[in-house]
Design a protein that fits this description.
12 helices, binds aspartic acid, binds magnesium ion, 4-stranded mixed sheet, 425 residues
Amino acid sequence: MGLVVQKYGGSSVADAEGIKRVAKRIVEAKKNGNDVVVVVSAMGDTTDELIDLAEQVSPMPAGRELDMLLTAGERISMALLAMAIKNLGHKAQSFTGSQAGVITDSVHNKARIIDVTPGRIRTALDEGNIAIVAGFQGVSQDKKDITTLGRGGSDTTAVALAAALDAEVCEIYTDVDGVFTADPRVVKKARKIDWISFEDMLELASSGSKVLLHRCVEYARRYNIPIHVRSSFSGLQGTWVSSEPIEQGDKKVEQAIISGVAHDTSEAKITVVGVPDKPGEAASIFRTIADAEINIDMVVQNVSAASTGLTDISFTLPKTEGRKAIDALEKNRAGIGFDSLRYDDQIGKISLVGAGMKTNPGVTADFFTALSDAGVNIELISTSEIRISVVTRKDDVPEAVRAVHTAFGLDSDSDEAVVYGGTGR
Ligand code: ASP
Ligand code: MG
């Protein structure tokens, strides 16, 4: 008898009907002879609605209280799901993150899991229960406060529990049939990927693909937990994310040269204008940013104009950190010694990801050709061993993604990219 962890996202449990549908699926897995642990997200857009509500009573809600509020969303869905399962004649018990033994650090709103002690889950399973765990939350080790893992954190809860319980697989149920070669909301001809390596999936996730969060994939890779991403609305096989290619029939699925195209419109660009071209300048700019606890993404520095000896440095960062970064730089303007700052939040990033890039020299050229054929201007470029990313105007992103997708032969013949639910909010 195996142990499976299943995670259902908000769009899968958006209403009472959804909860009943999911309950049936869970019972199926149990009837197939598995021990089943379920991680559930808040219903539909509950989390967003709770955040809106918090902002109506306070422009900057206290982190501790916001976590207390948001975790209520998952408590609602876990209890309802347990009730629905019992109604089908099976034993179920719901648990908060804290009760399930999800121990985190004490950084509110983006806590990290530091340990999982699932004793109560084990006991519940041993007593024949299906265990339902509230996603995206834990309890801090030192203060014993309730914490959340950051938006979309239920996937990480699921993988962490799968690792702690030594599960065979972590199934992530969502509103699409798996991981696609591009966002199916943008590319109708996106193709479902049968298998993808942890490495390529990590790059896609950090390049803006929202189907799985980076932290969740990182966790899965560290503990070598295979993830099966699939739809709760269809019975189709989804996408396997694991270290080794899966078997299909009697042959292994081959590693694709290009896994997919990701895009991200959540970043902004800051240009520091008129920086003296001498050692230590970049260091003091990025020290300032780091001290403000802001993560940056791409960086470019131009050569200085010979006449002035001044240069510009641009970098990208999450839009949500824009204000903080500008304030921090302004405060240190004298120390750093720049002329002015430019802030641009109308940018988008397009990334091509695939391990095959390492050994296929034409990929970069083909990527740029596809963009130029689509009339898309490139503003910044960055690369890793298995990824090329460019920054363009935000408005160009959908067109650019489709052009690159087609150019790399990723388009499917059928319109298989179905989006079953969710408001995409
Ligand atoms: N409910 C949380 C959110 O919407 C966590 C999750 O869905 O994974 O971000
Ligand atoms: Mg959600």
